[in-house]
Design brief:
Length: 219
Amino acid sequence: MATKNKKNKNIDILDYTYVPKKINSGKQTITDMSNIQAVYQNFLVTKTGYLVAIIETSGINLELLNEEEQTDVFETYNTFLMTTLGDSSDEQQQYLDMTIPVDFNDYLLSYKNRYLAELEKDTPNRERANLIASYIDDVTQKMQAQEMSTKKHLLVVKQPIKNKTYLHLNKASIDLNDKVTHYINRLEDTFDSYDLQAKKLHSDEIMAVLKNMMNFTGH
């Protein structure tokens, strides 16, 4: 009987039993409030036992389309939903349209390198260095003021993890990767005439999305 009880106890430990608690604003840390437990192979692992992937798609500018073309877009989108979320499907999807600040870090880094390279010349051109410095200052101020932003179109999909073993975690990652690939192919094929492109976000890109959701200004 003791062995049986011990076995049952082990099964309970491996099961996902976490239930999200009501957020007590101001008295909990981000870790306490978040349902995210870890990152595994560019997927999020949730405390409730799911592996989550995020697919980013390019947008379709409806303002450039006439009424008939706009109707066609919505009908095409409805077809995609019906083929992935039909009555017999247990799939769940979440769509996010997020406004995020434009990331100029790579652009700034290249100009800073140009500025330093100019100063390190035997006969530096001070006027050119000052002009480059003015570009750096202008872009930096725009970034800090969040004057320029862009839209991200995200599709969130998930896969259940059977229990807290590496075997089932890895199995879920394989299944979710296949699902993501299938969704990307379906999206691009369905909206081929609109040149829509889709890609799976990597872990650093996912972290940037989550950071933006919590703190748009980045301060």
